[in-house]
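Reply to dn_fold:

You asked what the input looked like. This is it:
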Amino acid sequence: MSEPEVLRYAAFSDDPSGGNPAGVVLDASGLDAATMQAIAHDVGFSETAFVTPATTGELLDVRYFSPVAEVPFCGHATIATGVAWAQRHGFGTLGLQTRAGFVHLEVSEDPGGQAPTATLTSVPPRTVAAAEEDLAEALAALGWEPDQLDALLPPRVAFAGAWHLVLAAGSAARLAELDYDFERLRRLMDQREWTTLQLVHRTGPASFRARNPFPPGGVVEDPATGAAAAALGGYLRELGLVHAPARVTVEQGIEMGRPSLITVDIPAPASSGIRVTGTAVALPAATG
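and this is what came back:
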């Protein structure tokens, strides 16, 4: 069996030096989970998406692997997959069957010749209370104090394909100083099956700055996390922190030198999926 082609894209940026890099295998037919995991480890990005096309070409089965484990859903790799697929097979709409459920994906070409744009619609989001002991342990691993949180954005565990603990910093300075105990946080997140922490600071009525530790994937920090942005959208709607329908923007990756921009559309119906939009561009081929 020949080696599958691995494409490399940066999602949530129109500049290859920004955004979150993702691997994309557009034809993973015949690959088992162990092979996918080995490929994702070799690629080394926070996630690699593996696509098995259906016979119609409009429904794709997609699995996502970090360098160390499979994850049920990944937003930035979905955006990258949509753009990569569209550039090979044509722009339009796709249905993705993921381990988290069905995800609708729309991909459009920029008329000005810039980076294409993809919009995913998540599975229905959910938000639950964070257990006091879990919150205390997460704060201890981060080195944060409870009084450094934003009282207007209470801690919750939110889902829109994957689970994320949402913690809102009361100041930009608190968010900027991210130096956490990797193994301690990884143990907690593995126990609770949280994919990343969605650490945010509200910078305006409809804008946020975010950082996402991802120790279960073997990654200290993710520069753009579409699944967490979708979960944040569901959290904001469920807690009445925005007046839906609403649009918010999430800036991420600034501190890492990989600036990313995620647009989150929050429809009014409580059970509807959250729409996450971003651009994606191919990364230059490695040399040497």
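The chain has two domains: 7-123, 126-273.
Hope that clears it up.
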